[in-house]
Write a structure and sequence with these properties.
alpha/beta, Enolase-like, domain 1, TIM Barrel, 2 domains, eight-stranded parallel beta barrel, five-stranded antiparallel sheet, about 25% strand
Length: about 400
């Protein structure tokens, strides 16, 4: 069996109308969400699938550089492929590698987990991820709705000012009771212009939140400032999580080796792939920390991450992020229909755990009709207007570019 074709399909799930989300220091507008479906086809007609980085640069890299490299190769030999290139191109290649492994596993009649380490369990704990820039009462209602779905933890994104954020944490705890984890994804606290929270504000908020037992504060300070993360962790007020903005493997190793976090986070489908993920897991275990997948794409990304996660014990790889979108009446943040529709069947969830199939490959059936149903629409998916200093910035799906000018795209 040889690889005959490698294809990257960019997809767009538009909102019916822009979603305006005011925050402490500005306003965020969400216009759409993009996704990427990678398909690798063999000369016998068998196909493998994977999620990819949802942006144009990655699509060009796959279709122009990575596809010619892989075509004609035996997918079962994926471990021996020595793909050249700079770090961002390598990250894109590792995303394609997931689809190559899926193809090889389907051919061998084995689940992907058996090819990437061997499963130690058949399920992984999920946290329901939603909540963006709402009122305290709205956050509390959503937290309860997510918990009522069976998730044992809920992650939200606060940005309404220190007093409102503390009120939100208190009301969420009251709504869900003592046993549901409350994860505070505070990545906005350092993106508010002049109103960005200082280290002192963050540390005071962590102390004030202690009675409500937040499960973690995620990126409460700029994530490249490992010393600031460690300082917060060393106060003992709240567990600290970070990792989704680490640029390279040395960054992850420094985050781990310096003890800057309690929870290491990585999006394996856009930050370096399965093999790098395994090395991050090993370092996490060595330092007796815990790992929690960052997962912000489609259900195809969720299941791909799960196959790697179950190759490790739950006391190392503990959590998998499950994005909860308001699709067809479900509770959650804005709609992102293609996130669900990329799979023909919903993923099996039992008591807050994702149950990972033992069927060949990723154990799922991709609905290729999404390629026609969700045609790609160029442009940023989210725009930030910051009050002071006045600034308008856009976010694309390219994690290597944190902020771009919405007019020039640079």
């Amino acid at each position: 069996m040889k690889i005959s074709k490698v294809e990257a399909f960019l997809l767009t799930s538009p909102l019916d109308e822009p979603l305006l989300l005011p925050f402490y220091g500005g306003e965020r507008t969400i216009l759409k969400r993009d996704a990427m479906l990678i398909r690798v086809t063999a000369d016998n007609g068998l196909k493998g699938y994977g999620p990819g980085p949802a942006h144009e640069r990655a699509a060009r890299e796959i279709n122009k550089t990575i596809a010619p490299f892989l075509e004609g190769r035996d997918p079962s030999q994926w471990k021996t492929f020595d793909f050249p290139g700079e770090i961002e191109l390598q990250k894109t290649y590792r995303a394609v590698e997931v689809a190559v492994i899926d193809l090889a596993a389907r051919f061998e009649g084995a689940p992907v987990s058996e090819l990437v380490g061997g499963r130690k369990r058949d399920r992984i704990k999920l946290y329901g991820s939603a909540g963006m820039y709402m009122s305290p009462d709205e956050y509390a209602a959503e937290a309860k709705a997510i918990a009522d779905l069976g998730f044992t933890a809920y992650k939200m994104r606060p940005a309404r000012g220190p007093e409102k954020d503390l009120e939100t944490i208190a009301k969420m705890r009251e709504a869900v009771g003592p046993d549901v984890g409350l994860m505070i994804d505070a990545h906005a606290w350092w993106r508010m212009g002049d109103k960005s929270y200082s280290q002192e504000t963050v540390e005071q908020l962590a102390r004030d939140a202690q009675p409500y037992k937040p499960y973690w504060f995620e990126e409460p300070v700029p994530p490249d400032n490992h010393a600031a993360l460690k300082h917060l962790r060393d106060t003992g007020s709240v567990p600290v999580a970070s990792g989704e903005h680490e640029f390279d493997e040395p960054g992850f190793m420094d985050l781990i080796d310096t003890g800057s976090v309690d929870f290491v986070q990585m999006d394996v489908c856009c930050q370096g792939g399965f093999e790098m993920g395994r090395r991050v897991f090993e370092a996490t275990a060595r330092k007796k920390l815990r790992f929690a997948f960052h997962c912000w794409g489609t259900m195809l990304e969720v299941i791909a991450a799960a196959h790697l996660g179950i190759c490790w014990d739950a006391d190392v790889v503990e959590w998998l992020e499950y994005p909860c979108h308001a699709n067809r009446g479900k509770p959650g943040m804005y709609p992102f229909l293609v996130a669900d529709d990329v799979l023909k069947d919903p993923l099996p969830i039992e008591n807050g755990d994702l149950v990972v199939s033992n069927e060949p490959g990723l154990g799922i059936t991709v609905d290729e009709s999404v390629i026609e149903r969700y045609p790609y629409q160029p442009g940023p998916w989210s725009i930030f207007k910051i009050d002071s200093p006045p600034e308008t910035l856009a976010v694309s799906g390219d994690h290597s570019v944190l902020w771009v000018d919405p007019e020039s795209g640079e």
